[in-house]
TrEMBL record:
Residues 291-302, 631-644 have a biased composition (Acidic residues). It comes from the Eukaryota. Residues 303-326 have a biased composition (Basic and acidic residues). Residues 66-283 form the Survival protein SurE-like phosphatase/nucleotidase domain. GO terms for cellular component: P-body. Transmembrane segments: none annotated. NCBIfam families: surE. InterPro entries: SurE-like_Pase/nucleotidase, SurE-like_sf, TTL, TTL/TTLL_fam. This is 5'/3'-nucleotidase SurE. One of its GO terms (molecular function) is hydrolase activity. Residues 290-333, 631-656 are annotated as: Disordered.
Length: 880
């Protein structure tokens, strides 16, 4: 394997040939584990092959100006034994290192600042006698000769050091590329440690200052600090820092990383994992120890906490009461006492032992380096309650003011656990309503009814349009069946002409209000679009367009379909009278003995989804057998339980019903089966490409570049070799656990490899995307111009679609189907950022211009970067 690294000093590549097997799998490296909120998930960790970090000596691909801080203070054998060796290794690697540290121990201080304090600097020259805790010299004035090795010490916190280092010192060295906080004297794994960590606090301060930041911590297991191990950890840390900086995700998906390196022998050869941060808690009992006298020296106390009994190197648990002894007899009232910080490290270690593998604490325990991507926030929960007012029920409360009444025009009551203060005490409830922003640019009702998508939309709205809109509750259906205004939008609005954004399922949208208010009402769906989303209509749309535009990309990227209608299986032969190509093909196949030479077809119900009812066939006998089987499996037509039968017919695979009730779904499309499909050298499973598409108004069409590859559950075999559909169908909702342990969904661009023997060549991937853009533009224009009855874009609407493409062995993408309201949750948790990025760019494109509101930020974020939403077609339909 050849690795080319571009040096920043001279514009020439340095080429290193690594031994076979010493490589970094770029696909695995880029598959971040829950990037935006890793601490909210328990996903398995992702492996960084550390042999790449530890290959032969080389200069960094990018020379950085690094600002380094910590919470342990200047070098000291008792409280800060690691910082000097890291600075030395960073400088040895060619980086410019500026150091600004607290002048003393500041552990457990988090992201605090000292208010009311004038922060004063000292000037520190590190010792030349050693790197491991040897103390240097401190002066009150900077060196007259402006020495490069002079550090800044401030009587503040790690967060203060970051602010001062970024903005008040080191300007002559140029902008800071990266802030490194650490290495901490002890691990900062799990939430309990991280939330109090000054090391994390310094990195968080850098992140909110819009600087890339890495918090680095060393986890030690012995009180004897071996200089050889520390030096190895420093070298390994430098390589991790360099690699994270080089491949920092675009946009704002990651603000900082928390890196924990175990101080174990051979750490440079151990694996490095992306992990989530374990959510844990202190157990019962206090983290303070009662004492009678004054506490000792702060540095000595910190060393005792880290290395003493029940500290970081201890596997023992304190006995009951041992961590909080109180001397003397019990007296009435308060007894004067002091309290010394004595955290129970064993609580943390026990939580790691009890948790499933894959978190940061587990990685360090096993001797691996953990890398946890983080956002610089305390991430919110219960997002469905956001922007709602909490109203406390009180019979004695005064009537609210008029302004408050206007704000709380409608409410939702949430049941709470009952409380029994007396025999007559009733269960308690709280009432929540939507909060109205003062003078909003527009109002919004967001009720997508999908727990996977709803928080992503709310999050994107908060980021793009903070303070510009007021969130209203969804309109409620009334019990009055003959009330025409049931679930009408107007009942939720301050006035009928209010500017309103309504995002909801298709059935919940008030299209009457949309039609009556074309300049003030914006919804997330067109009224009519069956020219695209029903397979038999899509086939007709393509046929009409190709007839008038024979050079269209649809001619070479959509298989011609044979549409027919079947009410009952016994009438199949009559239904195929006009399916000339299909009948000719099946007749021809009858005279061919070799199965591999026959033309195979795929049968699709015109109105089904989620892979329901799809079958393969090559002869009339096989096709007839498919319909006969469906009729045999369906419930008795005389069964009075019609609703259950209809539900099962709709495709309840789990209930054993993968059949079709032909009298309900009578439209079918048969198309030539695409064989052989493109198979990757490293993965012989068939896959299709899911492309998310945005349509705005009437009509702009956008393609979202971060596409997905959805794989079948089993290895692909030709249809005449294996009739098992698990190897042919790539719908993830159909996979009940195939033979492959590989993920069912990947990022399409992660399939790209510089080696044709392991992945998809970059040039081929680019051509595929270019053709997908052409086909997408053509199919939407075809529907808009040739099928005006069945596709009617509205100027005050937008809609997202999921287009599926199958790539053949010649790398040609074929359009399979168009889905409205695509099932985003099939993307899975690991790739949630793709969906988040798509929705953020969707709202940016669709909302800002309609309401005249400028979205915050210049693009990207949430998994997206500038240019990810590609404009592929503008169709002027003369409607506004």
């Amino acid at each position: 394997l050849v690795v080319i690294q571009h040096l920043s000093v001279k514009p020439r590549p340095a080429i290193h040939v690594l031994p076979r097997g010493n490589f970094l799998d770029s696909e695995i490296f880029l598959t971040f584990n829950s990037l935006s909120k890793p601490y909210l998930t328990n996903q398995p960790s992702t492996h960084l092959n550390s042999t790449h970090f530890n290959s032969a000596k080389r200069k960094p691909a990018v020379t950085m100006h690094i600002l380094l801080t910590n919470d342990d203070g200047p070098p000291s054998p008792h409280s800060s034994p690691y910082v000097h060796s890291l600075v030395h290794q960073l400088q040895q690697a060619g980086h410019v290192v500026s150091v600004c540290l607290p002048h003393t121990q500041r552990s457990w201080i988090g992201k605090a600042h000292m208010i009311g304090q004038t922060v004063k600097p000292l000037y520190y020259r590190p010792s030349t006698e050693g790197l491991f805790g040897t103390e240097g010299t401190t002066t009150t004035r900077p060196s007259a000769n402006g020495a490069d090795d002079e550090w800044i010490l401030v009587d503040g916190t790690p967060a203060s050091c970051v602010q001062i280092g970024l903005h008040h010192f080191f300007q002559e060295r140029g902008p800071v590329d990266l802030v490194v906080s650490g290495p901490n004297y002890g691990r900062n794994t799990t939430a309990v440690f991280a939330l109090s960590s000054g090391t994390l606090g310094g990195a968080l301060e850098a992140a909110v200052c819009k600087s890339k930041a890495i918090a680095l911590s060393y986890a030690f297991f012995s009180r004897n600090h071996d200089p050889v191990i520390i030096e190895g950890a420093a070298r390994h840390s430098v390589k991790v820092i360099e690699k994270l900086y080089q491949q920092w995700p675009a946009g704002d998906e990651v603000d900082l990383y928390s890196v924990n390196v175990p101080l174990v022998e051979g750490v440079e050869t151990h694996k490095t994992y992306f992990t989530n941060m374990l959510q844990n808690y202190w157990r019962d009992g206090s983290c303070f120890q009662e004492i009678d006298g004054d506490a000792g020296d702060e540095d000595e106390e910190e060393e005792k906490i880290r290395e003493g009994a029940f500290g970081e190197t201890s596997a023992e648990k304190p006995k009951q009461g041992e961590e909080a002894k109180a001397g003397g007899e019990v007296a009435k009232g308060h007894r004067h006492k002091h309290f010394k910080w004595a955290p129970r490290f064993t609580d943390v270690y026990q939580s790691v032992e009890e948790a499933a593998p894959g978190n940061d604490g587990w990685a360090v325990k096993e001797g691996y380096t953990s890398v946890t991507p983080l956002k610089a926030n305390f991430w919110h929960a219960a997002q469905e309650l956001h922007q709602k007012e909490l109203i406390l029920d009180s019979p004695q409360a005064e009537a609210p003011a008029k302004a408050e009444t206007e704000i709380t025009r409608s409410s939702t009551r949430l049941p709470m656990r009952s409380s029994t203060f007396g025999a007559q005490q009733q269960s308690t409830t709280v009432t929540t309503t939507e909060t109205t922003v003062a003078n909003p640019k527009f109002h919004a009702i967001i009720n997508y009814e999908d727990p996977y998508v709803q928080p992503l939309i709310l999050e994107a709205m908060e980021r793009l349009f903070p303070g510009a809109y007021s969130l209203l509750p969804a309109p409620q259906e009334t019990a009055n069946d003959d009330a025409e205004n049931a679930a009408k939008l107007v009942v939720s609005l301050p006035s009928p002409d209010t500017k309103i954004l309504h995002i909801a399922p298709y059935e919940s949208l008030d299209f009457d209000h949309v039609a009556a208010h074309p300049t003030t009402s914006l919804v997330n769906s067109y009224v009519i679009r069956k020219a695209l989303i029903r397979k038999h209509y899509l086939s007709s749309t393509v046929d009409h367009w190709i007839a008038k535009h024979p050079s269209s990309s649809l001619k070479t990227h959509v298989k011609r379909g044979e549409h027919f209608e079947v009410d009952y299986a016994e009438f199949l032969d009559d239904a195929l009278v006009e399916a000339f190509d299909l009948r000719e093909s099946m007749d021809k196949n009858e005279g061919i003995e070799e199965e591999s030479e026959k033309e195979w077809w795929i049968l699709k119900p015109g109105m089904s989804d989620r892979g329901q009812g799809i079958r393969l066939f090559s002869s009339m006998e096989e096709l007839q057998g498919i319909f006969d089987e469906w009729e045999e499996e369906r419930p008795d037509s005389d069964d009075e339980d019609g609703e259950e039968g209809a539900a099962t017919a709709a495709g309840d695979r789990e209930g054993g019903g993968d059949y079709i009730t032909t009298s309900h779904l009578r439209h079918f499309v048969a198309q030539p089966y695409i064989h052989p499909p493109l198979l990757l050298p490293s993965d012989a499973r068939k896959f299709h490409i899911r492309t998310y598409v945005l349509c705005v108004g009437s009509l702009d069409v956008y393609v979202y570049k971060p596409m997905l590859a959805l794989f079948a559950g089993k290895t692909y075999r030709a249809p005449w070799e294996d009739a098992d559909l698990d190897g042919h169908l790539t719908n993830t909702c159909l996979q009940g656990g195939g033979e492959s342990a590989l993920p069912p969904v990947k990022r399409f661009w992660d399939l790209v490899s510089s080696s044709s023997s392991s992945g998809l060549p970059a040039a081929a991937a680019d051509r595929i995307f270019e053709r997908i853009c052409d086909v997408t533009g053509d199919v939407f224009e075809a529907a808009a111009r040739e099928m005006t009855i069945h596709f009617q874009p509205l100027g005050n609407a937008f809609e997202v679609f999921g287009l599926d493409f199958l790539v053949d062995e010649e790398a040609r993408p074929w359009l399979l189907e168009v889905n409205s309201f695509p099932d985003f949750k099939q993307t899975g948790g690991d790739l949630r950022g793709v969906v988040a990025g798509f929705w953020k760019e969707t709202l940016r494109k669709a909302i800002g211009g309609f309401f005249g509101v400028e979205p915050v930020g210049g693009g990207g974020g949430g998994g997206a970067t500038d240019g990810d939403m590609v404009h592929v077609r503008r169709v002027d339909l003369g409607r506004r």
